[in-house]
């Protein structure tokens, strides 16, 4: 498998996000304003009508890591999901750089660190934001 396969993601992609996560909400808000927003379909996995089984996956897996599905039926998970998303949004050079061995290793490790702590970091961030108001 090529380390650059995320550059082959085909739009439109479906981004499965946690609507309860403050970091995810910021990203989704940005995507909604992006000039290529038609390339991304947003699905909130916290929506009461969402069923992970419809996508042959599990809710807990989707809560643990970012998931992107391209229009060819290919899944991108974790940091690869971010790379695929940004590739279809037109940031291909940055994605290519993020796939280089040392850069990729650092970004992948950073993503895993963040993903494991996303809920707690989100709670801390929301408290901090509410105090700043």
TrEMBL record:
<protein>
    <submittedName>
        <fullName>DUF393 domain-containing protein</fullName>
    </submittedName>
</protein>
<dbReference type="InterPro" id="IPR036249">
    <property type="entry name" value="Thioredoxin-like_sf"/>
</dbReference>
<dbReference type="InterPro" id="IPR044691">
    <property type="entry name" value="DCC1_Trx"/>
</dbReference>
<keyword id="KW-1133">Transmembrane helix</keyword>
<dbReference type="InterPro" id="IPR007263">
    <property type="entry name" value="DCC1-like"/>
</dbReference>
<dbReference type="Pfam" id="PF04134">
    <property type="entry name" value="DCC1-like"/>
</dbReference>
<dbReference type="GO" id="GO:0015035">
    <property type="term" value="F:protein-disulfide reductase activity"/>
</dbReference>
<feature type="transmembrane region" description="Helical">
    <location>
        <begin position="94"/>
        <end position="114"/>
    </location>
</feature>
<keyword id="KW-0812">Transmembrane</keyword>
<keyword id="KW-0472">Membrane</keyword>
